[in-house]
């Protein structure tokens, strides 16, 4: 997958990019140094699909990954100039740059001591390179969204990027959308110590204008420590209005394990207080520029800086349904069936179309057919596909490709497809928790396995099915053992529900083509 540019060209492009950002020759030179900057990237991935993600990283970036003991995370090293390719990975939800990792951190048993250690740690951490990676990442995001350019030299130079009100508003919408993801402090704490905390209890203000006036405080940017001549960082500190800009930040702590004397709230609060003191940044829970991550899993601790504002898994879908599947999970499921060019891939219960849309984007040499019995779902899937088509057109109108994907309303038990004509079936079976009911599943599952067994090619056909109703699925599978055998099971977590992804292989037994209902 994706060939990289030759290193020399990359360095020059980096310097040019620095030139684009409206910087002088000195900064362009710094751009060339950035080309040599390496980053350890942490990525959160759907649990159970860590190896899939590691394979994708090796294929597309050529880096080896380390799979964390903390499920759902992988780590890999890349040159900072590969960040754009990192953001194009299909199997990762969120990305962060690792500041430092502790394999066996000795937390003190006394709460006060443990928290004091975390505070003291802030001064000792190697922030300089990770912050450069964060800035480079920001400049890439800016290029994409064409927001106001700002000086790359100093993190302190990034204030609220708003000219007047319009763009500021857009900025705030993003953050709110993200708030929905994982940041509801109370609800999240209950889900096992995942949590976010406002370090100094600073309430966020909304008015953009008023923020501009209140930002004249003097800024001691971390960069001063890192750039030998303090003057360089100093220059970077004035925004376009000629006043100092202060970075806003928040700390998000995820803690798992029963040996800790402190909660994730307390850790975030005290670590955040120390971060604020160290950088002279301003704590802000909603309009933050920098999100510092503190991931604690038993004795492992990782400090990082977030590189994605909202999870990448939302990338394809514009019209969400009640149970829209994360595209990263869809990617993992599709990858399990190893699609080959010209394969016909069917999702008979497509919902909003997450699986076929991911499939068409990543395996364009296959033909993807999506269907659902619910007209509302079919409509949403069609809307998502047309947004995808529009996105493709806007990229390069001369070469706009169609998407090898069709959406049809049908009955899952009576598919209008010829026996033995399909290579792969990939679908998210009704869970019975959010949609449908377990009672229905007892009838639906066997009928569904029979029908997909009928349309799949004997001997080579395969199916990847996600379900939470594992008992029911096992029972149904035992009834169709002559046409399907289970090759692999991956345990996953879907929105807090324990679920399983089954890879089934079609036996060479021909399907009974008796169709009493036609």
Automatic annotation (TrEMBL):
One GO MF term: RNA binding
Locations listed in the record: Cytoplasm
Domain THUMP intervals: 196-307
Keyword Phosphoprotein: no
SMART domains listed in its UniProt record: THUMP
A single Gene Ontology CC term: tRNA methyltransferase complex
Keyword presence, Cell inner membrane: no
Positions of the UniProt region annotated as Disordered: 1-24, 144-243
UniProt KW keywords: Cytoplasm, Methyltransferase, RNA-binding, Transferase, tRNA processing
Annotated GO biological process: tRNA methylation
Signal sequence extent: none
Biased composition (Low complexity): 225-235
Family of the protein in this entry: Belongs to the methyltransferase superfamily.
PANTHER family: THUMP DOMAIN-CONTAINING (PTHR14911), TRNA (GUANINE(6)-N2)-METHYLTRANSFERASE THUMP3 (PTHR14911:SF13)
Name of protein: THUM3 protein
Species: Setophaga kirtlandii
Gene: Thumpd3
């Amino acid at each position: 997958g994706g060939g990289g540019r030759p290193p020399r060209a990359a360095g020059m492009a980096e310097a040019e990019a620095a030139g684009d950002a409206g910087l002088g020759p000195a900064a362009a030179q710094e751009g060339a140094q950035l080309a040599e900057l390496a980053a350890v990237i942490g990525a959160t991935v759907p649990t159970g699909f860590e190896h899939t993600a590691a394979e994708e990283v090796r294929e597309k970036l050529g880096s080896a990954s380390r799979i964390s003991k903390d499920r759902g995370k992988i780590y890999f090293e890349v040159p900072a100039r590969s960040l754009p390719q990192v953001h194009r990975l299909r199997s990762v939800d969120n990305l962060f740059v690792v500041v430092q990792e502790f394999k066996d951190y000795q937390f003190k048993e006394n709460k006060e001591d443990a928290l004091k250690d975390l505070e003291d740690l802030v001064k000792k951490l190697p922030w300089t390179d990770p912050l450069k990676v964060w800035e480079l990442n920001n400049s890439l995001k800016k290029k994409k969204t064409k927001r106001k350019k700002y000086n790359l030299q100093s993190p302190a130079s990034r204030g609220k990027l708003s000219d007047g009100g319009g763009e500021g508003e857009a900025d705030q919408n993003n953050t709110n959308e993200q708030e929905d993801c994982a940041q509801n402090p109370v609800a999240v704490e209950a889900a096992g110590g995942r949590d976010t905390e406002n370090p100094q209890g600073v309430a966020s203000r909304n008015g953009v204008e008023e923020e501009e006036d209140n930002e004249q405080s003097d800024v001691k940017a971390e960069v001063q420590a890192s750039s030998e001549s303090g003057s360089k960082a100093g220059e970077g500190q004035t925004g376009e209005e000629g006043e100092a800009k202060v970075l806003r930040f928040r700390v998000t702590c995820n803690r798992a394990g029963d040996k800790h004397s402190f909660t994730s709230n307390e850790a975030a609060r005290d670590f955040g207080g120390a971060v604020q003191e160290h950088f002279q940044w301003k704590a802000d829970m909603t309009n933050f520029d920098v999100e510092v991550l503190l991931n604690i899993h038993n004795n492992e601790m990782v400090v990082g800086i977030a590189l994605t504002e909202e999870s990448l898994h939302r990338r394809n879908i514009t019209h969400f349904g009640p149970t829209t599947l994360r595209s990263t999970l869809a990617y993992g499921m599709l990858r399990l069936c190893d699609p080959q060019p010209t394969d016909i891939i069917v999702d008979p219960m497509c919902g909003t179309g997450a699986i076929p849309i991911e499939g068409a984007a990543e395996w364009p040499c296959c033909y993807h057919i999506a269907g659902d019995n619910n007209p509302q779902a079919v409509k949403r899937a069609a809307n998502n596909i047309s947004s995808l088509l529009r996105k493709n057109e806007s990229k390069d109108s001369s070469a706009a490709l169609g998407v090898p994907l069709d959406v049809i309303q049908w009955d899952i038990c009576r598919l209008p497809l010829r026996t033995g004509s399909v290579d792969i079936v990939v679908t998210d079976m009704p869970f019975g928790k959010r949609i449908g009911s377990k009672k229905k599943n007892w009838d639906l599952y066997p009928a569904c396995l029979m029908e997909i067994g009928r349309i799949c090619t004997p001997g080579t056909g395969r199916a990847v099915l996600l379900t939470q109703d594992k008992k029911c699925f096992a029972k149904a599978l035992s009834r169709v053992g002559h046409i399907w055998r289970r090759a692999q099971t991956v345990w996953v977590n879907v929105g807090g529900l324990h679920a399983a992804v089954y890879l089934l292989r079609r036996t060479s037994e021909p399907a009974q083509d008796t169709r009493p209902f036609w």
